[in-house]
Amino acid sequence: MTPTSVTVGQVDDLSSPVPGPFIAAEDGTKAYFAYINSQGGVNGRKLILDAQDSTFQGGVVATDTGAQIRNDFALVGGFSILDSAEKPLIDIAHMPDITLPLDTDMVSDPNVYSSLPNAIGDVPLGFFKYLKHKYPQAAKKVGIVWENATPATVASEQAFEAAMKSVGFRILYDHGVGPFYTDFLPDIIDMQHAGVQMFVGMELPDSFAATLAKQMQQQHFTPINIEGVAYSNRLLFLAGSAADKMYIYQPYALYLGQDAKTIPVVGLFAKWVNRVDSHATFAIESVYGWTSAALFADALKQAGNPPTRAGLIAALNKVTLFNSGGLIPVSDPAQNIPSNCFLLAQVQNRHIMRVPPTPPTGFSCPSGGYLRTPEPMVRLKS
Q: What distance lies between CA 46 and its chain's CA centroid?
C-alpha cells in the first residue's frame, strides 16, 4: 500500500503441468486492473498485480502465498489446482482471497470470496428440471463422461449427478476420465449398446468435448449433447460440423462476442484482455480473473481511505448482490450462495447462439430450488 498504489498477489499454474494452462486468469485480472487504472484507479490509487507461477508445486504455492501475505494487500484472481496449499496461511493471517476456489476445502473457507460462488453441493435444480421437461424420454437414458482431474471436479460431478437423479434423470453410463484421455470410442460404443439418448458432459473442457463430438459423428451416434464447460474460442475450430446442435450450459455471458451488442461489458472485457495480452486465448479463467478483480475493486472503494485489510473484509462481507456488469448472473459472494440462473446456448450452423429458455439478454433464473439448501457463509469479523 502506498499513497498512489495498491498491490495484490496471485498464484497461477503457468509453466506446469503443461505450459500456460491458466495464464488466462492472469490476463483477466490484469485486464480489469488496466481498465480501472485508465479511469484513475480506486480512490486515486492504481491497482498492481504481483502474479507468480506455482510451477505446479504445492510448496511453491505456499512460499509465494506467504510472501504475498507479508507484502501485498490481498490475494486476487489466483488459479491453481494446488490452491489448498494456501489455506493454512490465509487462515492464520485472515488474508482476504478473492478468487474462484478449486479445492473443496477452499470453497468453504471463510477468508475466500468468489464472484461465482460454488458451495459444491448447493446445485441449482432449475436447469435440470427444464431439461427433463423438454426431453422426458431422453432424460431416462443418460450417458456421462467427465474429466476426473481434481478433488473439486470429482465433488462437483457427484453433486451434478445427484441433482439430476433428484429430479428424475436415469444415468445408464458414467465414466470419469484422466486429463490426457483422447480416445472416446470405447465410451461411445458402450453408450450405444446401453441405449443412451442424452449425453451430459458437465466437466469436459473444449478439447475433450470436440474430440468426443467428432467421434460420435463418425459412429453415427446422435444423442442430445449437453456440455457444461466447453464454451471457448476453439470449440468450433476443433469440432467442426460435429458440434452442430450441441447445447452449452453455463453461468456466464457469451463473452467471446456473441453478447457484445446487448451486454456492453462483453466488449469492454474483450478490449482490455487484448490490450494486456495480444495472444490471449480468452479461456474461461479470464472471466474468473476479471470478475474477481471487479469484486475486489468494488470492495476496495468502500474499504476506507487509506484502505485497510479490515476495511476490505468488512466491505466484502456486505457484497450480497454482484454480477460484474452483467458478465455473470447476480450472486451473493458475501454469503457464498450460488446463483440459480443460467444461460443455455446451442451451436447452429457453426454459430453459438442463445436458445430458450434463455432470454435475449441476461440469464434464465427459474424457480426450482437447490439440491441442498445453501447456508450463508459464517465469515470472520473484520
A: 27
Q: Which among 291, 295, 289 is positioned nearest to 313, based on CA atoms?
A: 295
Summarize the chain as % helix, strand, coil (round to 5).
40, 20, 45
Name the least confident of 21-25, 96-100, 271-275: 21-25
**What's at 58, amino acid-wise?**
G
Q: How confident is the model at residue 150 (pLDDT cuts 50, 70, 90)?
A: confident
Sort 127 into a burial class: Cβ within 10 Å, 0-12 / 13-18 / 19+: buried
C-alpha R_g of the chain: 21
What is the rounded CA–CA span in Å between residue 62 and residue 344? 38
Distance from C-alpha of 293 to C-alpha of 283, rounded to nearest angstrom = 16
Between CA 138 and CA 298 the distance in angstroms is: 44
Q: What are phi and psi of 330, to 5 degrees?
A: -65, 130
pLDDT at 243 over 60: yes
Q: Which residues contact 208 (CB under 8 A, 6 or more apart)?
A: 145, 147, 177, 181, 184, 201, 230
pTM over 0.85: yes
Class of domain 5-116+259-326: alpha beta
The residue type found at 57 is Q
- Are domains 5-116+259-326 and 126-250+340-354 of this chain identical in fold? yes
Out of 3.40.50.720, 3.40.50.2300, 1.10.3210.10, 3.40.50.620, the CATH code matching 126-250+340-354 is: 3.40.50.2300
Indicate whether 16 pLDDT > 90. no
Cα separation, 236 vs 333, in Å, equals: 33
Q: What is the DSSP letter of 259?
A: T
Domain ranges of the chain: 5-116+259-326, 126-250+340-354
Burial of residue 375, with CB atoms counted within 10 A of its CB: 0-12 exposed, 13-18 middle, 19 or more buried = exposed
Q: 293-318 burial, b if ≥16 CB within 10 A, otherwise e? A: bbbbbbbbebbeeebebebbbbbbbe
pLDDT tens-place string over residues 248-257: 999 999 999 9
**Kind and range of the H or E run holding 210:** helix 206-218
